[in-house]
Amino acid sequence: MKKLFTAGAMAMLLVISGPVQAGGFSGSVNGVLGTKQIDNDELRPRHLGLFGVMSDFQFGGAPIRLAVDLLLAGRTKEVGGTDVNVSTLELGVGGRFVIPTGSDFHPFLGAGLNLTSAYVDIDGGGDDSDGTVGGYATVGAYYSIIGRINVGAMYRYSIAEVELFDEKDDIDAHHWAIMVGYSW
After folding, report:
1. Which end of the chain, N or C, is more open, meaning fewer C-beta atoms within 10 Å of its C-beta?
2. Where are the extended beta strands (E) located within the chain?
3. At the top level of CATH, which class does the domain 2-176 belong to?
4. Pairwise CA distance, residues 57 & 68, whole Å
């Protein structure tokens, strides 16, 4: 179900980029691939694979762009002889400031709110999930290599607290990723 939701959201972002461009707006849509490290030593596994979409839309000449990001992270690992699957889904909405450089190099800063869900499945021990609202801050840069094709990297720190197996768990996390996408 999560894979279907993620694929649908990615397709939606790519489809809406055409009308947004035609309306005189600018922006970018980038696929991301990287890693997420949860800052909770009790939650295992903590190091998750990460993929998703980061997009931003600039209306007129506004200095702050609307950022809409969808990130999915997950991993299954044997812990104490038992397979444990941990996955998170983050839908981030906020602002992103792309620092004007007058070149093809585009550094950016951003922050916003995350709708975050977490899922844990312990082989033979049950599963649990929870969702919450958290926050994030991000920094990165992309370079336009061929026309409007981007390559870049980003770092993001997110905060959220969920309740899993009747215990409150902080799932604050570091995200590192490479990006490839399109800007207009």
Report:
1. N
2. 26-38, 47-58, 65-79, 82-98, 105-122, 126-146, 149-159, 161-164, 167-170, 173-183
3. mainly beta
4. 8
Beta bridge partners of 7: none
Our CA angle for 104, 72, 140, nearest 5°, is 25
For 140-167, the pLDDT digits (tens) are 999 999 889 999 999 999 999 999 999 9
**Residues 56-109: tens digit of each pLDDT:** 999 888 899 999 999 999 999 988 889 999 999 999 999 999 999 999 999 999
Instruction: Provide the token pair at 106.
Output: 């585009």
The domain segmentation of the chain, as residue ranges, is: 2-176
Virtual torsion, Cα 39, 45, 49, 51, nearest 10 deg: -60
Q: Specify whether the CB–CB gap between 114 and 136 falls below 8 A.
A: yes
